[in-house]
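Researcher: For the record, we're logging two predictions in this thread. I'll number them. Prediction 1 follows.
Model: Prediction 1, sequence and structure:
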Amino acid sequence: MLRTTLFSILLIGLLLLSGVTLAAGPQKSPAVGKQVASEQIYGQQLMSEQEKLQYQHKLQNMGREQEKNQFLHQHQQKMQKRAKEMGQTLPEPPREGQYGIGGKNGSGGKGGKR
């Protein structure tokens, strides 16, 4: 009798906990299920998926606008060099403040201030 009661209490407790977990929804790590908005990455056609994820992660974790702009400028130079080595040409990079991630106007380089 005591064993059955303890088992019932334990079973009810587990069911309640699983219900709370299910109600909270699935928990994903930040990288899981996240797609890189590749139209916001200058030279993205020259980058691997791994590089795109690293780029986005690094840019999102930067604090100051000046730091982001410096990173973006260095990235543009790197992509222009890579394109030249591959015999390709990239379009002109967007001007400062026209970036979709962390930019001042959130335009993603499309239709922002010119």
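Researcher: Logged. Prediction 2.
Model: Prediction 2, sequence and structure:
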Amino acid sequence: MIKVQLLVMGAVVALAFSYGARATAYGVMLLALYGLGHAGTIAIAGASGGLVQRYLRWTDRSGAAARLRQGAGVFVAAAGVYFAWTA
């Protein structure tokens, strides 16, 4: 997974540098937006830990999550049969 992230990051940095050679402000903006997006997703994931814990406690006490998973499984199976039938 880390290799893929490094490849994507390398491509974005190369793109920002290539545009930055022609238009410095545009290259800086691309690099800054990439950095904000990357750091933002990590910050959101870290900040939502409590929400995930609350959801997991709710699913332990409720059978609704099990029914939701079963319904989703039926939907996926039906979609698979449909796609196999129409292919």
